[in-house]
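INFO batch 0412 | record 1 of 1 | parsing
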Amino acid sequence: MVTWPLLIADPGGGEVAVEVLGAGPYTMSGSWGEARPTGRRELRLTIRYDGAEPRAGTVRVSRRVPAADPWWLIPGLFYGENRPAACRRVFPRFEAGADRPGEMVSARWGFRADRAATPAVMVWGEEGGACLIADEESALGATGLAIGHEAGEAVIALLFPYQEFPITYYGSALPRPAEAATYVWQPGETHELTVATCPLPADRHAYAPLLREDRELRRPAAPVEPWQDVEEAAGIAAEGLYRWHYDPDPGVLLETVGFDREVSGGDGERVDRQAMHVGWVSGIPWAAALLEHGLRTDRPEHVAAASRVIDFICADLSPSGTFWGTWYRRSGWSQSWSHTKDALHARTLGEATLFLLRALRHRHDPAWEAAARSNLDVMVARQRPDGNLGTLHHAATGEVLSWSGASGLTWIAALCEAGGESYLRAAERAGAYYAAFVEDEFIYGAPEDVDLAPTSEDGYAAVIAYMALHRATGAGRWLDLARRAADWTLTFRYSYNVRFGPRTPLGVYGFATRGADQASPSNQHLHAYGLVCTDELIALSEALGDPYYAERAHETLACFRQLLPAADGDVNAYRGMITERYYQTDCFQPKGMYLTLSHAWSAGVLLLACEQVLARDRARLADLASR
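INFO prediction complete | emitting tokens
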């Protein structure tokens, strides 16, 4: 028995420090479990409070790593510096020696664990790193994850219960005061805490096997029970797009529609967003999914609606030869969501073009084909010799206004699927350029609304891009980059079921979060956009002979077949209305709520994934029948 503070040598290397923040005395001991294949070991701590009066105390478990320039990873929450210095979106950023909490820039950060896709904190220095892993909650309350850097040394820590510092992030540029949960120890009270830890090699990608192993350990205690099967979910999503988001005048998929149709009269129109992006949050990708569904299920009204949306977008290109960014009912076609005047965003344009090419597989249309070729040709003409396809493009002149970030990734798949040697060569140049983002474990710039923040959507774009290159060329390099991109993407995917209050909507409905993705460190809510690369993750598993990535794809499809309104009135919505946001932590809204707006992309991406899985099932059955 050793009296606090306690330093415990890790049999794998390094040591773990255990202390209690608050008045003592405490008595502590620790014992190690056997090493797992990754080197991870469980450390079981026994802590007894020996004081005579009740006292508040926070248990802190930490590791230190020499690091002049540390690289952090809290899955789904913190990546390296987390916010590039040039990013206009304000959210927590690490900077050595900094203490500017009002700007959300600091050398030390603490967070509640439910903000993380896996309750783990990792750091790498010049020679190696370390990790600490825990559960979302313990007997002492919600767990905390913390990082800090001082005098050339990086510190990672678990806190029981959590502390958020130097500020609390709630989704806006206005910081909230720091928070500290409290646990009051009673005289003689004893608790056991179990944490997992191990040293890490210098390769930052060492997180991948560790998180894969951790997910397998958590899975038995984190069931996911879909409300509908895949066929039923496809029908619900298609009806949502057609019934609620499609407006035949002039032929658009409205981006958001309110659940409550009586909130302001006029059947809710005042709360519906009278706008449509050409890709991303609305537009061609989800119209293409509706088209495929309508053709498969013999729903001519769905086919007609999808075709009208694509017709409308293709009929009016920008003066520079690409699609526009966004249509507004009051003002017509305009730029992307950018602070830069007249800017069109490469990811949005690329996604629209990619799914237009996929729509052409199901229905040939000369106007669609001409629009696709125009977009492809002008983007190839603007490509830099090093392969960069640009981020922001001037709608009128075509001038590239920004080359920052990796938003051009989506164009790689469009170029590959367009066919033709010149397009493929451009795709390969782009693949080589953007590879550095994947290899650095820091991909950023995809969504228009968070500027240069790293996001799960950057990961989806990279997986789609490098799988397209692998399919087109068969080259092993592209397959390896697809695997690395998938591993990075899956850091955003929740590996456990967050515990919700029993009276919150997500608690009442028993929403299971395993398989859902954190949108980004900036937008800390769960979303379903990861369904966009369902087919690519399954294909990656097939190419590698490793079922893991397909399992993670099906896991996400199972997750978002929960909370689906199959009938008017279900989950306080109408049939087919599908939310964008599930609040798994206190950010934007209190934990346990969900956003009562239906988003076109939320219905569209679910429909897309369902159709992709159903198409694979049909192909498999046809193959068996032919044998």
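INFO post-check: The chain has 14 helices and 35 strands.
INFO record closed
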